[in-house]
Amino acid sequence: MATELRWALIVISALIIGGLLIHGLWSVRKKEDKDGSRQDVPAPMDDVKTSEPELNDMSFTAVEEEPKATIEEPVLHDSDEEQQEASETNSASQPAPEPQDFIILHIQMPEGLTMAGSKLLPSVLSLGFKYSEEGFFNRHLESSGNGPVLFRLVNMYNPGTFDIDNMEQFSTAGVSLFMTLPCEGDSMAAFNMLHGAAKKLSDEFGAQVLDSAREPLTVDTIRAYVEKVREFAA
């Protein structure tokens, strides 16, 4: 009986010792596994230091869209508008240059013949002349009647004017075209228009073009007129 009890205690002791050994080994293995697993786990984000790249270290090309060209109209302030209006008023109110000389061409009908007013009026109007309150026909810069007066057409005989309301009963032996110098605008262009109008009227009525001395117009006289115009245009 005592022998059996002793053997039972030995077996129990061996089992206890074996269990302790097994537990110890298991604890050690678990600890190693735990430590190893911790090495694989990334550190918290708070402990991770991040570094942003410096601009100097970055190489890039920035492509910007070219701005579209825009045309902006200038904004006129009150002062600018006043200055512009004043400038326009001054230019409009500037008097025409004082006449210093003149060029005149006469269109003379053959002896015994006259220009009928009923035919003269439409011819003059077709050349761009406009009737004025003074009783003359003026040729303005524009055929519509706008712009400065370049030259005039008058009656070659007294009183020198035309009665536009009685052109049907009117007749004359000749008319005169004249321009003053200096002339507003392009003087040479104005002279060419005057000379052209004289030729057209002379051809239409079978008349003769005369110079200021009432002598037949010659090439030399035309050249002299041209030189005179150029002197005032310079």
UniProtKB/TrEMBL annotation:
Record's bilayer topology term: Single-pass type I membrane protein
UniProt keyword annotations, A-Z: Cell cycle, Cell division, Cell inner membrane, Cell membrane, Membrane, Transmembrane, Transmembrane helix
InterPro entries the record matches: Cell_div_ZipA, ZipA_FtsZ-bd_C, ZipA_FtsZ-bd_C_sf
Subcellular location: Cell inner membrane
Composition bias, Basic and acidic residues: 65-78
Spans annotated as Disordered: 32-97
Record domain ZipA C-terminal FtsZ-binding: where: 99-229
Pfam families, per the entry: ZipA_C
Listed transmembrane segments: 6-28
Any one annotated GO CC term: plasma membrane
Main location: membrane
GO biological process, one term: FtsZ-dependent cytokinesis
Function: Essential cell division protein that stabilizes the FtsZ protofilaments by cross-linking them and that serves as a cytoplasmic membrane anchor for the Z ring. Also required for the recruitment to the septal ring of downstream cell division proteins.
Stated family: Belongs to the ZipA family.
Subunit structure as annotated in this protein's UniProt entry: Interacts with FtsZ via their C-terminal domains.
Protein name: Cell division protein ZipA
